[in-house]
Amino acid sequence: MILQVxxxxxxxxxxxxxxxxxxxxxxxxxLVELHGWLDDATFSQLYALAQAAPGPNILVASVMGWxxxxxxxxxxxxxxxxxPAAVLAWFxxxxxxxxxxxxxxxxxxxxxxxxxxxxxxxxxxxxxxxAHSHGVMPLIVVAISTLVVWRTDFSPLWVxxxxxxxxxxxxx
Amino acid sequence: xxxxxxxxxVPGRSALFMGYLKIGLFxxxxxxxxxxxxxxxxxxxxTERDYAEVLGLGxxxxxxxxxxxxxxxxxxxxxxxxxxxxTGGLYCAPFIILVMLCLFYDRYGQLPAVAPVMAGIAAGAAxxxxxxxxxxxxxxxxxxxxxxxxxxxxxxxxxxxLPLPVIVLILAPVSIALSLWRAGLLGGVPAR
Lengths: 172, 192
Hints:
The structure holds two protein chains of two kinds.
Chain A: H1 2-15, H2 20-34, H3 40-51, H4 60-98, H5 105-132, H6 137-151, H7 157-170
Chain B: H1 13-26, H2 31-42, H3 48-60, H4 65-108, H5 115-140, H6 144-159, H7 164-182
């Protein structure tokens, strides 16, 4: 069982171009439809649980693994999800280092920059849409937070804390 | 704000770990925003452009972009030890918090009653992520065609809901070709 969890998440790790949100549909297909390890409702609940923790949301895999097979499943899912992609990144970094003299390398890498920023912006917009489900007040927080982070060098901790306080006051 | 980038510094091993620990711990909702904040603005490990390039590469590889960037940045400064320290620092605090949440959930069958606070924080995080994208775009002084690619990626992901791998596979080659053409590497007359 643990081995199967490890294998399943290792495969997911290598198809996760775009990170956790990109791999979520395939994760659902594997865990719910193919293996029947989780049902639909549990899958959604666990996703919400993972969102409540800070850090890269790829750790949603850890929560799924824990639910499927306890602590061992959690370890296997986390290892499977993180390690193959990290090993690939390691070797690509080595390749880049070897090619560093090539005149086309910097411009080629520069070509990936707008794609990455565009997807970060898209993630922010998707998060803002989700926040909008709580009404208009969160959208004001989004707008203020955008301006503060964009136009000033204040720590984003302030906007997160401010958002949390406003949420406690107005949303409960 | 001055436009001259401050000189970059090479972090020691423990500084590398502590920096990534902060990124993981504070990274509610938008870990990419915190990674840029710590690495570029606070600690000056990389310039804006260097960081954007590492992140771009991390984006097209499978796995989380910030996680891939941690491996590559750690390796650049301290080889295998650096990659392990950066990755370990990034995931260790969120993982511990997640274990505690799981235990809580197991015991009480629901999440702690912090939903309103979390909704407010999530709204703040959304703005933080959007603001970071704007900030990077401004500081990198992207060419018009790069801005077009950026907007297409946003449009495809946020409004059309296209799968991210599809967006990356279509836009990355086009964007790389445009960038090479700008650098005068594809023939033709590049605008200088």
